[in-house]
Specification:
The protein is α+β, with helices and mostly antiparallel strands. It has one domain. The chain is 29% helix and 34% strand. Strands 1, 2, 3, 4, 5 and 6 form a six-stranded antiparallel beta sheet that branches. The radius of gyration is 17 Å and the shape is globular.
Length: 201
């Protein structure tokens, strides 16, 4: 059916490393579904900033056995805010380069966060649930440990280098995809913020 013929931009970037305890994997996938983003291919900066602002589609993050979100070629829709995810992930990667702890909100959930703790060159990752609200959580990301979470999953471990590199590569691919769709959008508030964050990595 014609209405299901979607124009999509797809990225599927993965990285796996073999180590003595098995396979570690940190993978990010996304799909920009243009039909979920009005007609951004011809939109000027002013209209995009005022009417759309973010880029929507499908988004998933896979950390070994932990899996959040989805990317499915058979589904002609996606309501994940890709730009919001990329802002959070770039901020998390920058924090990991300087500090040993970072936690960030999982978009579109009520109270679930991804917590990352550095032990030398390894990142321990788990899903946690917010049990006590604090003003420090307003920005959706923290780089100091606070007693406001309870564990929802066990820790899983991945290489710190590969977490940072994967976030950097996927973000750069996303920026190139936006440039192909409408290079004017590179100067929009949200895309420019992501570009600047990525430069800090």
């Amino acid at each position: 059916m014609e209405r299901f013929k979607q124009r999509m931009v797809t990225a599927n970037i993965s990285y796996q490393i073999s180590v003595s305890r098995g396979i570690e994997m940190f993978k990010i996938n996304y799909r920009i579904v243009l039909e979920e983003n009005e007609d951004i291919s011809t939109m000027d900066i002013k209209s995009f900033n005022e009417q759309v602002y973010d880029i929507y589609g499908q988004f998933e993050i896979v950390i070994n056995e932990l899996h959040e979100g989805y990317v499915d070629d058979c589904l002609p829709f996606g309501i994940e805010i890709i730009t919001f995810w990329l802002r959070l992930l770039n901020q998390a990667a920058i924090a990991l380069q300087k500090k040993s702890y970072v936690a960030f909100w999982i978009p579109e959930t009520d109270s679930f966060w991804i917590e990352m703790t550095c032990k030398e060159n390894t990142v321990l990752v788990r899903i946690v649930e917010l049990i006590k609200y604090s003003d420090v959580l307003k920005c959706h990301i923290i780089s100091e440990h606070h007693e406001v979470f309870k564990n929802k999953t066990e820790f899983t471990s991945v290489s710190k280098e590969e977490v940072i590199n994967e976030i950097k590569r996927v973000t750069q691919t996303f920026i190139k995809d936006i440039e192909m769709i409408n290079d004017n959008l590179l100067s929009s508030e949200v895309i420019n913020e992501i570009i600047e964050l990525n430069k800090q990595m």
